[in-house]
Write a structure and sequence with these properties.
Two copies of one chain form a homodimer. Chain A has nine helices and no strands. The first copy, chain A, has helices spanning about 5-20, 25-35, 40, 50-70, 75-95, 95-110, 120-135, 140-160, 175-185. In chain A, about 35% of the residues are buried. The interface of A and B includes residues 103, 110, 154 and 164 of A. The structure holds a DNA duplex (33 and 33 nucleotides).
Chain lengths: ~180, ~180
DNA sequence: TGTACATCAGTGAACGCGCGTTCACTGATGTAC
DNA sequence: TGTACATCAGTGAACGCGCGTTCACTGATGTAC
């Protein structure tokens, strides 16, 4: 079950997209990487766009679900923020390719992503706003603070992608948590 | 001198790239927007790639120069950091289209950008490292701290791009400066 | 066991299309005498 | 002033190419009797 043709297509497509950019990779390129011919891909995905959207949205909403679960840990807001940051770091360590794919393709999709309960950005924004309302952190522009926290994480992943950092997010988790806590202080 | 054909081509190309994504815009699209036919573009740029690279690198290194100048203000490290953050906010206000273009296309170019004196990321990294050496801020992983600061700014611009924030960077400059100072505290 | 048939992942050949780019040409503008 | 010529931004038509996708077909595998 771990290596169905469909899974292999998804993995190789993701690898090529990260390596060369989504638009530089053709259906023939993907098929080659999997060891198939291009028409065979259409037995598994209705179209190229379908394949890409499947890769993006499935992963993005899964990230949202994991984040929502972490946000539900007992304790005060700072414990919840720490749990959220750590789960993102863990997701990066678990599948860096997937994380990088989301990082690189985000701008092609974010316009179309609905701001629902599985949207990671929305989840963080709402938790910051709630913490401000509850008086757990100094009040201010919740969206701006949420953006700052997301920015710290995303840019660290970007630095890792471009080899400015020698280790992944998980190896810097303590420092990233500390920075995020300073932002909400 | 402000409206040569070449300048109009650059501006319309940038607008279309930001609006639809670089790969979704053809030379014919750009020519249409300018009111020309596609072959005319080749009187001004040797190729499509040349046009895009020109747009990106010229702007990116110009940002680097402005940042380097801001970093040279007299005073301690915190004054310099504030000056750098404010100049980026000002650049955003001055030409939001250009800023967004750099934001959206960065991943297509960052692999190829040389880490020289005009690279904005490099400038910030080096200033943070120097401040740590000098004991102006607590020592730690300079690259990580630099990434955090860059992340705060970049993500704020991203939130603005996707209309999560109603105002540009310049209108939030005070808050962004405050967050960045907290990061290096 | 052998035969007929259903299933289905994968293929080879072909399609129409839009792309980046080339090139001979046009037509307006400036210059020489 | 008028005529001949140079310059040069812009154009119409055409090119070869690689793209996403379709479709009739293959060939291996499983099932029925």
């Amino acid at each position: 079950m771990l290596d169905t043709p469909k899974d292999r297509i998804k993995r190789e497509a993701m690898r090529l997209f990260v390596e060369h950019g989504v638009d530089a990779v053709s259906m023939r390129d993907i098929a080659d990487a999997v060891g198939m011919k291009a028409p065979s891909l259409y037995a598994h995905f209705r179209s190229r766009e379908d394949l890409i959207a499947d890769l993006f949205y499935a992963s993005y909403t899964e990230y949202g679900r994991q984040l929502a679960r972490a946000a539900g840990v007992p304790g005060g807001f700072r414990q919840q923020l720490e749990a959220m940051v750590r789960v993102i770091c863990a997701l990066h360590a678990e599948d860096e390719l997937l994380f990088n794919f989301l990082l690189l393709t985000q701008h092609g999709f974010l316009r179309a992503v609905p701001p629902d309960d599985c949207n990671p950005v929305e989840i963080i924004c709402q938790h910051i706003a709630a913490a401000m309302e509850a008086g757990d952190i100094p009040s201010g522009n919740a969206t701006l603070i949420a953006g700052a926290i997301i920015g710290v994480i995303v840019q660290t992943a970007t630095f890792r992608l471009y080899r400015r950092l020698g280790q992944g997010l998980a190896d810097h988790a303590d420092e990233i948590v500390a920075i995020c806590l300073r932002i909400v202080s």
